[in-house]
Design a protein that fits this description.
This protein is mainly beta. It is built from 1 helix and 10 strands.
């Protein structure tokens, strides 16, 4: 039985080691225009409005074998969305124009699907919201608008779930460009309670010496 157990463990490890590539880090730089939108419960007189944002990062990819790679990055993101809600039976409507900056630290697993041309990636991202540029305004039923001081949010941490599907374009000197439609959702409420913030964008990454 011990021999059988040894064979069952040793053979898969041997096959994996044969597929394993020589350790090599791949560096890249990326930019992603995005649409940021807020999921809300419309039953409570709430409404979310999407607005454009963007993110950029320095990337690091480490191939584990010919199919699977680990990816991480140090990124910056600028996010924007609107949040509207009514009270006093619709007499007042308050609008929050929310804009904030964040640091992004993703850890993703990438799976190459065919000849390392197309791929799928998924994982988690730690974000740190450190700057808030939000504005508040209030409108009544007579069309009178008033600018209100915004509540100063403290810097906060959050975690997002990231998933994407992409395509690699190879260049001479072993460089490449990946085009990657992606989406991420904030796991915890972000700035507005009982809501869910989503980002959808197209990430372009240029890798050096792939």
């Amino acid at each position: 039985m011990k021999l059988v157990g040894f064979i069952l463990v040793f053979i898969p490890l041997t096959l994996f080691s044969q597929e394993k590539l020589k350790p090599k880090y791949v560096l890249g730089i990326s930019l992603a225009p995005e649409i940021n939108f807020l999921w809300v419960d419309k039953k409570n007189s709430q409404q979310g409005q999407s607005r454009p944002g963007w993110s950029g990062s320095l990337n690091l990819k480490y191939p584990l074998n010919k199919v699977i790679s680990m990816r991480s990055a140090l990124g910056y993101g600028f996010k924007r969305f609107n949040y509207n809600y009514s009270y006093l039976i619709g007499y007042y409507q308050r609008t929050k124009e929310i804009s904030f900056s964040e640091v992004e630290l993703p850890v993703l697993i990438q799976l190459d699907l065919k000849d390392q041309i197309s791929f799928f990636a998924t994982g988690l991202e730690l974000v740190y919201c450190f700057k808030n540029f939000s504005k508040n305004s209030m409108n009544d039923a007579y069309g009178i608008s008033e600018e209100l001081p915004d509540t100063k949010y403290k810097a906060i941490f959050n975690i997002t779930y990231v998933f994407s599907f992409g395509y690699n374009i190879k260049f001479p000197k072993r460089n490449s460009l990946s085009l990657e439609p992606m989406a991420k959702v904030y796991i915890r409420d972000h700035l507005i309670t009982h809501t869910r913030l989503w980002n959808i964008g197209l990430k372009s990454t240029y890798y050096f010496g792939k």
